[in-house]
Amino acid sequence: MLTALTDKSTIEEKEFFVKWDRAYHMCMQALKGSVFEHLSSGLQKTEIAKELYKAVGERYQKSSKFKVGNLMSELKSMKYDSVGGVRDFIMKMVHIQTKSASHDITLPNKFIVHHALNSLPIEFTQIKTTYNDVNEVWSVNDLISKCVFEKEKLKKEKSESALLTTNSKPYYQKNFKKPKNAPKQDNKGHGNG
Questions:
Q1: Could you give the CA distance from residue 168 to residue 157 in angstroms, rounded to a whole number?
Q2: Region (Disordered): which ranges (predicted)?
Q3: Counting beta carbons within 10 angstroms of the beta carbon of residue 99, is it exposed (0 to 12), middle (13 to 18) or buried (19 or more)?
Q4: pLDDT tens digit string along 36-67?
Q5: 58 SS3 class
């Protein structure tokens, strides 16, 4: 414990106090500079590090509870919209799970898998049915690989369907035979001759 200087303090004690005082002020400046502004605004001004730590700690507890509430709301409202990748969607859920764990809120992987499955659109019904039918618990990585595979399969089916649609002729064009000596038609459907 540092004692106050007196008239009877030795030169060594005075030099030590000057060095300690300088180091303490530098430490306080570093501490104040490292605390987020929204946590430190409105705090009572103090030059005692222990009091500043305590005040910031109390403020952080309130901020932490608010942040956890926001994380839970974000997780609860997540729905996959088929715009981005399904892997990224599930990884965002895992990211929220990790952030929540840093606030002492544990979300088991089983919960993340169930929530992710419930957040997927109707196109992923086959995966949901498979999950409900099997007697094994999927890990998050299992879910990601199965969903990515299903997404790729859906893309392939969609492109094949589009290809079939664009390459097929309507029924009336398939059964219509042109006479051999009929004039050629221009783009507007009028004869050239």
A1: 16
A2: 170-193
A3: middle
A4: 565 555 566 666 777 776 776 776 666 677 88
A5: helix
Of 37, 31, 65, the closest CA to residue 51 belongs to 31
pLDDT digits (tens, 9 = 90+) for 17-33: 888 888 877 877 776 67
R_g of the chain, CA atoms, integer Å: 34
DSSP 185: B
> For residues 68 and 105, is the Cβ–Cβ distance under 8 A?
yes
Alpha carbons 51 and 37: distance in angstroms, whole number = 17
Predicted TM-score (pTM) of this structure = 0.53
Q: Cα–Cα distances in Å, from 186 out to 141, 190, 191?
A: 58, 6, 6
Q: How many CA atoms lie within 13 A of 98 on its CB side?
A: 7
Locate all alpha helices (DSSP H) within the chain, ordered by sequence: 11-34, 37-40, 49-77, 86-101, 109-119, 125-133, 140-167, 171-174
